[in-house]
Amino acid sequence: MAFLAFPQFIFLPIAVSFGYNKLYKNDDNLKKPVKYIFYKDYYVIKNFAGERRIDCINIEKVVEKESCFVLHLTSKLLQIIPRKGF
After folding, report:
1. Is this structure's pTM higher than 0.85?
2. How far is residue 43's CA from residue 54's CA, in Å, rounded to a whole number?
3. What is the C-alpha separation between 2 and 59, in angstroms, rounded?
4. CA distance linking residue 58 with residue 34, whole number of Å
5. Which of 3, 15, 17, 72 is most buried, taking the most CB atoms under 10 A from its CB?
6. Under a CB-based contact definition with an 8 Å cutoff, are residues 68 and 80 in contact?
7. pLDDT tens track of the chain, all 86 residues?
8. Distance separating alpha carbons of residues 61 and 18, to the nearest angstrom
9. Per-residue CA distances from 63 to 7, 39, 48, 71, 73 (Å)
């Protein structure tokens, strides 16, 4: 039975990877830049889908990584902001 499941562990990630790359190359909306605007008590994310305002009064923790900032808004919610957003 295990030998029937083994090909799924190999071919499924490959299929997902090719499908994602094909979707990204064909969808111009995903290639449009995302704009981050920071204010004192909130920040705004503007992308092709619209505009989102996120209050950041009670941020629990900010982690600085090499390529991004990770804002822990609550214990179960985080926001990843790439460095190119600055």
Report:
1. no
2. 6
3. 46
4. 24
5. 72
6. yes
7. 566 777 777 787 787 777 777 777 787 877 788 888 888 888 888 988 899 898 877 788 888 888 888 888 888 888 888 887 55
8. 36
9. 38, 19, 27, 7, 11
- Is 37 in contact with 54 (CB distance < 8 Å)? no
Q: Mind giving me the DSSP string for 6-57?
A: HHHHHHHHHHHHHHHHHHHHH-HHHHS--EEEE-SSEEEEEETTEEEEEE-T
Task: Give residue 16's identity as a one-letter amino acid code.
Answer: V
Q: Which amino acid is located at 9 in the chain? A: F
Which two structure tokens, joined as six digits, stand for 66? 């090499």
Kindly report the length of the chain.
86
